[in-house]
Give the backbone structure.
Amino acid sequence: MRRRNRWVRTLFWGTVLGVFALLVVVFSGVAVGAFEQRTLPPPPQPVPFSHAFHAGGLGISCRYCHAAVEHAPYAGLPPTETCMSCHAFIRPDSPRLAPVRESWETGEPLRWNRVINLPDFVYFHHGAHVAKGVGCAECHGRVDQMVVVRQPQAFTMKFCLDCHRQPEAHLRPREQVFNMAYTPDPELGKKLKELYKVRSAEALTSCNTCHR
């Protein structure tokens, strides 16, 4: 009987320690992953698309390529038709645009690689943030100055909570949401917070706001 009790205790504590060790590994991996998001190079893309040229130089709105950003959780990526609406006439024979032409002719979509991937346990809705006056640059940085798009900061839980606890510092008029050069005014942000009915910090930092 004593030997059996000793075996049960050993099994119990071994299980407890195993679960604890697993949790340490998981949370360490999450922390390291959040840090690496900042340091890893951007993934390769099928076409060398320069946001600095298109968004910065030509002034093309984010919405032209990311058409779902105002109403959907995911901003969306441009189909080949969007590219060809210009490049059927502008530099149609450029070697760099060969993948676009091939996609157009075959009907096989371009396989763009996402630069920013939030964990599966995080819920984020682009349309909701745009409607409340949160500019693209608040999270994505000055994309209009990036030849190759990169993630400008790690999207840690702290990054989101800092914004949610003081939203007035990050709000802008809705007509300025896609203006990369706009600088938010905290005093105006307080008025916009009331005008756009931004919820209280307690509601915004509730667990189920982001984890559903």
